[in-house]
Amino acid sequence: MPAKATQVPSQNFSLGTTITLAAGHLLNDFYYNFLPILLPIIMPKLGLSLTMSGLLIMVYAITSNLLQPFFGFLFDRWNLGKFLLLPVIPFGAVCMTMIHWVDSQAMLFLIIALVGLSVSSYHPLGSSIVAHTTPGEKLGSVMSYYIAGGNAGYALAPFVVVLFLAVYPTTMLPWLTIPAFLFALLCAKKKLHRNPDTGSDTASGTHRRDSKE
Fold first, then answer.
1. Within 13 A of 202's CA, how many CA atoms are on the CB side?
2. Residue 42 CB coordination number (10 Å)
3. pTM of the model
4. CA dist list (Å): 47 to 42, 103, 116
5. What are 122-146's pLDDT values in tens digits?
6. CA–CA gap between residue 203 and residue 99 (Å, rounded)
7. How far apart are CA 20 and CA 23, in angstroms?
8. Of 100, 103, 106, 112, whose CB neighbour count within 10 A is largest?
9. Could you tell me if 193 and 86 are in contact, meaning their C-beta atoms sit under 8 angstroms apart?
10. CA distances from 98 to 7, 42, 172 (A)
11. Beta-carbon contacts of residue 173 (< 8 Å; ≥ 6 apart)
């Protein structure tokens, strides 16, 4: 008979895990949307032309969006998720908020590409954990909360950054990384990075084949 995927029992579902991962998605897309607000500050400082600014946005889009399937493949093929879940959002946050100290266009492109890779890696990682820790009858609603978290973070970024820079200089931006590190600590406390569904173990764990004939 056809193989069947094992469903996550409803009693094993954790609302706390959903909230944590949605908060991670919020922070991930929150830091991602810093660039449009910071770009008008960066352009005169580094002498970026409109052409180079457009190229920068293109690099950002490629690394943060088009590479997501590549990271998804890596997480399916090798158990890399458990190594990336804790540092990925703090890494992207630190890179983005250190942009004041970037002193060349080459360094700016490198920093932006690194932020993009950080953003790109969290999306398949977080969604895979959501999918494999949620029972089938709750998957649609839980995944919608996870996605809404990212949308909220994306929408919140301009408001927060503009208000922050109205009071503080760009040298103070690293203070905005505090939520990212708190998220990593929360994941560590909940041991989400040890979840077998953060990597290739998922294929042999949650999706076990039913051997009944």
1. 27
2. 20
3. 0.83
4. 8, 11, 22
5. 998 888 888 877 777 778 888 899 9
6. 39
7. 5
8. 112
9. yes
10. 43, 12, 9
11. 96, 97, 98, 99, 100, 164
